[in-house]
Every structure is written in structure tokens, then in C-alpha cells.
Amino acid sequence: MARWLALDVGEARIGVAISDATGFLASPYTTLHVTRDESQTWKAIQHLIEETETERLVVGLPISLDGAIHSQGKRVQAFAERLKEHITVPITFWDERLSTVEAERLLVERGEAELGKRYMTTGGRKRNQTKRRRKKQEVDALAAAVILQEYLDTQMSKMRGTE
What is the model's pLDDT at position 154? Predict the structure, then answer.
């Protein structure tokens, strides 16, 4: 099977996940920071594709609970359309509903989430802001892994004829 890369596209960051070579398991990979210069984003994504020898890209599509695609979903679709011109692999959209919620739940289960804690000292506050920023990046990459794992599981089910 082919190696897959998944993107959880946000306004400030893009969470990235990758599958293993068998297409069975998704793992968080990295987080890209979105800048005003989209060409940097395109280059970074193409670099990841080359670095990981990815053959396909899954982009999380925000679909509302009622099944409609609203402004955020349209923004992601437009992003993917622009991205297609700069990468060498095909793009597949996948419903990302509640992927960030699931990623946060997984972090809490792992005992690594420290959301909402604040220290009153300046040093503690600065240290805590860095931790929160790191946690947000972790959540973004983990959300991409949730999206990719759901996609891979669905593909496996189809291959086995169980869906």
C-alpha cells in the first residue's frame, strides 16, 4: 500500500500526520505554521511529501454536524484547490468532524493535557504560554492523525467488504 499524509488545516497552523508504509496506522508527524506567504506553505507541504515518500494526501474537511459545508469548510476547499497546483500527489477530502475534540480527549487520556492552567508569576506564565503553544501544535498533529486513521480504517473496511 501507499504511504498517506493528512493535513488538518487551520488558520494559524496545519497539523500533519503520516501513515506507515502498510497504510494501516496513522501517526502525528509535525505542525506547519501558516504564514501570509502561501508559497512557503506550498513548499513546506511538497517537502514533506518528498521527505516521507507520500503517494496521496488526505485533507480534513470541516463539515458541520448537519452535514453542510460552511465558511471554514469552503476555506479549506479553496486552500486545497490552490495547493493542487504546487504538489505532485492527488488530494482526497475527509470529514474531520470532531477530530480536534477527539485529539484533545486522547491527550487527556495520556495525561499530557494541561489546558487552562495558569501561573501567577511572570516566569511561570511565560513557561506556561510556551507549554500551551506546544500543546496546541500537538493537538493539531494528533487531529490530523485522527482524520487519517479514520480514513485508513474506512479504506480497510472497504477492501475487506465489511462496509
Answer: 86
Report whether pLDDT(134) > 70: no
The number of distinct structural domains making up the chain is 1
Domain housing 123? 4-160
Backbone angles phi, psi at 23, to 5 degrees: 75, 25
Q: What is the 3-state secondary structure (H, E, C) of 78-134?
A: HHHHHHHCCCCCCEEEEECCCHHHHHHHHHHHHCCCCCCCCCCCHHHHHHHHHHHHH
Q: Is the pTM of this model over 0.70?
A: yes
The CATH number of whichever domain residue 96 belongs to comes to: 3.30.420.140
pLDDT greater than 50 at residue 158: yes
Retrieve residue 36's grid coordinates: 501570509
